[in-house]
Amino acid sequence: MSAYDDLMAFQKETEALGQVMGRLGWDQETMMPRGAAPQRAEEMAALEGVLHARRTDPRIGDWLSEAHAPDEVGKAQLRLITRSYERASKVPADLAQRLAKLTSASQGIWAEARADEDVAAFLPTLKEVVALKREEGAALAAGGDVYDAMLQDYEPGASAESLSAMFAALRPRLTTLRDEVMASEQPADLDFDFDEGKQMKLTRKLAKAFGYDMSHGRVDKAVHPFSSGSGQDVRITTRTSPRDPFNCLYSTVHEVGHACYEQGISKEYLLTPLGNGVSMGVHESQSRIYENQLGRSKPFCGWLYGQMRDTFGDFGVADEDAFYRTVNKLRQGFIRTEADEVQYNLHVLLRFDLERALISGDLAVDDLEAAWNDRFASDFDFEVDKPSNGVLQDVHWSVGLFGYFATYSLGNVYAGCLNEAMRADLPNLDEALAQGDPTSATEWLNEALQRHGGLREPRATIAHACSGVDPSEERLLMYLEDKFSKF
Amino acid sequence: MSAYDDLMAFQKETEALGQVMGRLGWDQETMMPRGAAPQRAEEMAALEGVLHARRTDPRIGDWLSEAHAPDEVGKAQLRLITRSYERASKVPADLAQRLAKLTSASQGIWAEARADEDVAAFLPTLKEVVALKREEGAALAAGGDVYDAMLQDYEPGASAESLSAMFAALRPRLTTLRDEVMASEQPADLDFDFDEGKQMKLTRKLAKAFGYDMSHGRVDKAVHPFSSGSGQDVRITTRTSPRDPFNCLYSTVHEVGHACYEQGISKEYLLTPLGNGVSMGVHESQSRIYENQLGRSKPFCGWLYGQMRDTFGDFGVADEDAFYRTVNKLRQGFIRTEADEVQYNLHVLLRFDLERALISGDLAVDDLEAAWNDRFASDFDFEVDKPSNGVLQDVHWSVGLFGYFATYSLGNVYAGCLNEAMRADLPNLDEALAQGDPTSATEWLNEALQRHGGLREPRATIAHACSGVDPSEERLLMYLEDKFSKF
């Protein structure tokens, strides 16, 4: 066995154990009996210990120094292993352990504080999280920019500077567009009880229509929709609410986008570093293009309207056009995850600016709520009414995910680029979507992007899929301005 | 930290990882999408590698040589860790790996051979399994008896000699009893379609009645009923068949017996060696006493008859007495898992004798089918009609479980002892069972046996629960002769 083969064999086991960890997370959110939580925490901590020891195993360094990649794919494998090894080796074991313990406990404290609308109860913990994440970031940055170092965990190659430029381009045009659309008359809200069993039946039909492979996945209900796993076992969850069928249906299509990316990666990369989605931003490009550019398009909404009439009977929406406007309705809202296509990135931008200030030290944790509320009022023109609609709404900061939020917007921007390239190649796509058939689009995305997994860096992954054109937010803006100017 | 503390901390992580392995097995049988099987095999192999490395970690030897147990519980912990470490250290890593690989593949080969009724397709693999298990047994025996060494994996303290004596006492009286009962008129078979959804509803009610804690467990359907997990997360499966509701209901009560044992172990022993059922035989004593001495008792059957009438309406059984006789009906059958209380142990005995002969070399694998069929005809007075009803019916040998079968009968014998001791303490038990309430019995079993986990050796565990009386098959025989002589 060569050093390369030894390394890849070792890595395969680590990837397999990483999949086990993901499965435990899925089980916890879907199947686990409530009383098992303390034991599950011990199980996950033990497995995390095993994974951490493997990721920092000094033999990896030895193998890397001797390994010769047999081809371009092998070079990409070594690049990802090197990155992961260097990352793991930079963080002292003691710090990694303290962070794991703290963020495991702090999620519960955040959830309780949110339920109690009690920001003060969460702030001492958040201070500790920020302090430890800054310590970790400094270790990772090794003299460079701390926040940039954090970004690499989610979006290799991204920088605060490039993201700031992206948001600077997005903000004025999105705000203008939002104000224009909101000034015109908006469709009424749905007023109908949608049977939850029928929602799940239709949601499974949608999942299959978008190419989700049920022989390598399954759909369950959970409090929060998510996708979990890579390779041959990629599971999704959704949720139902009797008054809001779109929550179920579009959560499903969103998660199917994530899941199809993982399911669609070349079988040759199974249980290797290349066998996972390349970054959070690229992942989100898949979930968002499935959900929005395809799922919320006018032709697809026309087909979905018929499906919903067949499933639920007359639910009080007159025709396809009214249905399309209802699906894409803009509304004043506090919650990022419920935001429409136009306003979503404004929610993200608020978080991006605030978390950078927290990490740089320009904003004290004690001042965070006031800063959030001021910024929200100025960006959205109405006031936050309670912490669960404001600074306590997202789990991310409680578990130390600083640098993550921007990848949501990056995903939207990438989806805009991919949509333009895809539609140039597929002139008849709208006719197929009007028949409820996104197959040509999902096949295009698989061929152009999904099957390559981690072969190229994130931006290069998008550029490769777009005939070499470097991604830009201009594509997303043009798509949104075109779509919503017609309302 | 003392050596004892270090050892126990290490052991706790190993126990937690062992629970993760169990959860993967549960997922595979209940939730996993079909196409995920190859990846799951890699995941389980990687985790098995981690567990094997931990179980043979030389630090365990160092800690054990320095550790001082703080109390009797600590001494029991060290005793179990020592046994596991010595066992793992005796088997060369290479042999352990070859066995793991072989038995992982051979289960599929057995399943296919069984489906095809093709014994010859399975024999080459079985030969390899027998050869490797003999090699492993010789390593474990270190000069002693190979089969006795194998028994220790399932029933520490058991020997072929003591089991032979047990079976020698059981065989003539069970055969006589069987012949007597079968000579009298047997009740008709059920002839009704039992709604499977209603079966599951009633089965959950039964599970709760027997004390199964749903906040630390769950009931799902699977091809084969099983119980999985220890401590705070103990899940069971059952199955439904429209023509045979007893399959569902009594599988559930059986698995609830296993599960309540695990759920009922003292919380102090969570994720320690004492926190698991002490042996297969003692485990089976719990499943069998729940299923038979409690669940198939006349008063409980009376209550269950009412429940089934309420659930399914008139299903063609006239009264409680006829129902009791139907539940306990003896019939000619090929299949061990479907056998009645009287004949079950005769099925086990056949396997015990044949596998001892296989391991000693007195019986060649090529002659196994003929030996099975001859023995079956002589023990049961009718002929095996096809391999799936004969030598290919059980999975055990294909996965190398030699020494396991006898623990089923040992469990029945132990259940007989426990039943006598329990009834002496609970004179009003039958009245409670007639109300569908086995609580006093399950509490007695928890107090006398379940909560102690692995504190005492298996026979001592039973003796402790029975006021110090050493277990004997006489109790089971008297119970069976009393019960079935009244038919």
UniProtKB/TrEMBL annotation, chains A, B:
| Alphabetized CDD domains for the sequence | M32_Taq
Protein function: Broad specificity carboxypetidase that releases amino acids sequentially from the C-terminus, including neutral, aromatic, polar and basic residues.
EC supergroup of this enzyme: hydrolase
Which Pfam families does the record associate with it?
Peptidase_M32
| GO MF annotation: an example | metallocarboxypeptidase activity
The keyword ATP-binding belongs to this UniProt entry's keyword annotation: no
Q: Which stretches are annotated as coiled coil?
A: none
Q: What GO terms in the biological process aspect are recorded for it? A: proteolysis
Per its UniProt record, the required cofactor names are: Zn(2+)
Supply the name of the protein: Metal-dependent carboxypeptidase
**Entry cofactor note text?**
Binds 1 zinc ion per subunit.
Indicate the transmembrane segments per the record.
none
Q: What chemistry does it catalyse, as a reaction equation?
A: Release of a C-terminal amino acid with broad specificity, except for -Pro
Q: Which family does it belong to?
A: Belongs to the peptidase M32 family.
The active site annotation covers 255
